[in-house]
Amino acid sequence: MISTSRIVIALSALPLAFANYPLMNGTTTSTVYPTGTSSPSPATQTVSVGKDGLVFSPDTVHAKTGDEIVFEFYPKNHAVVQADFNNPCNPSTDEKRIFSDFIPSAVGRANKTFTIKIEDDKKAIWLYCPQNNPKPHCVQGMVMVINPPQYAHNTLEAFRMKAALVTGNATVPLGGASGGKVASPGTPSTPSDAPIPSGSSPTESTGAGALLAANGVLGTMALLAGLAL
């Protein structure tokens, strides 16, 4: 005969088995979603330099802080220089002024691009081409603006009209490229090595919990059978 105390001990093991390894009820995958809202990824816009004549296409760009502007160059030999609104065709007094240096192309798009990142979308960036051969491109109207101001008198057309009044040649900055990055089109960017925040990636369950729970039940049943002998 099986004593009552032995049966009680054996049955008490059943809740422990189910508590430690709960049955999955047919579900094998669970997902933990990150909390909070994520910020939108920076955008990239492309500007063609000299593709449609002595113009930037487009000549007006609206971008947010963190966005990138990629300049693609076409024949024959152009550059991008940052100017001040009241002094077109001359390099800006800003210490971080933009200058792509000259990027020539005999046919089609050049094998290099120039990329800048917007650091302050509240600040207008006035640009011109400093090429003077055969005529000053800036004076001919080859200018553009990124994030034009809201003031009515500081418009691209006003900047272009000021450039048309410049006598002589446009000024080419000293030194090489600055305020951006010269690269070959299609160059892959370096992937981020930042670790994934805790709780931000999905987690999977392979059903091991259900299997262990079943094993626990079978083990308890075997124990009862052994006591019955």
Give a concise summary:
With 229 residues, this protein is of the alpha+beta class. The chain has three helices and 13 strands.
Shape: globular
The helicity comes to: 10-25%
Strand content: 15-25%
Any low-confidence stretches, pLDDT <50, length ≥5? 14-19, 21-37, 188-214, 220-228
Total E-strand runs? 13
Mean pLDDT: 78
Structural class: alpha+beta
What is the H/E order? Answer: HEEEEEEEEEEEHEEH
Number of helices, counting only DSSP H or I runs of 4 residues or more: 3
Strand order of the largest sheet: 3-2-5-9-12
**Intertermini distance:** 8 Å
Main sheet specs: 5 strands, mixed
- Radius of gyration (CA) equals 34 Å
Q: Can you put this structure into words, describing what you see?
A:
The protein is of the alpha+beta class. 21% of the residues lie in helices and 19% in strands. The protein has three helices and 13 strands, in the order αβββββββββββαββα. The strands form four sheets. Strands 3-2-5-9-12 form a five-stranded mixed β-sheet, with no helix packed on it. Helix 1 packs antiparallel against helix 3 (208-228). It is globular. Residues 14-19, 21-37, 188-214 and 220-228 have low confidence and may be disordered.
